[in-house]
Amino acid sequence: MSPKLRRVVDVLSIAVPIASAMAGNLAVNNPPGQRSFWYLAAALLVIISIALLGLQRGRRPTKLRLSQAEEYPGEVLRRRVERVNEAFVEAATLMADLQRDLAAQQAAREELIAKADEQQRLLAVDQEQAENIRQILLGETKATIRAERRREMLFLGAGMLMSIPIGVLVNYIS
Questions:
Q1: What Cα–Cα distance (Å) separates residue 113 from each residue in 118, 121, 124, 149?
Q2: Which of 7, 76, 102, 128 has its CA 20 to 30 A from that of 86?
Q3: Is the full-model pTM beyond 0.85?
């Protein structure tokens, strides 16, 4: 079966059920004497219009292929080479952009690593200083606690020594 004949059969296989459905609808809505005329007219109209539309659509790709085949092969090759060259230029541009971005990211990474090393060094120094300060404070605190105990004992002893003469004096006066 030729491609044209196959296309016509395909179009008619779609058009005939649509036309019969439309004609059946017309036959139900019209008086009994006019049913066969309207049925035949509607069916033929739908079949012919769908067949013509299907054939017309089938010709368009053929015309397109013919117009492309008439084109000089050297011109087609030239256009393809131009498209390939444009793609290479775009790829080179993107590659340069990527290299710039990569260089910027590496510079930022190196800067962050330098800052992190500096922070680690400062942290080690700060820990040593914090330990020294803690030892100084603990040493002063122990000395302060001893001094306060001595002073409290001194006041206790002075209070006891003073209470005896005051007690005797109070008893003597009263």
A1: 9, 12, 17, 53
A2: 102
A3: no
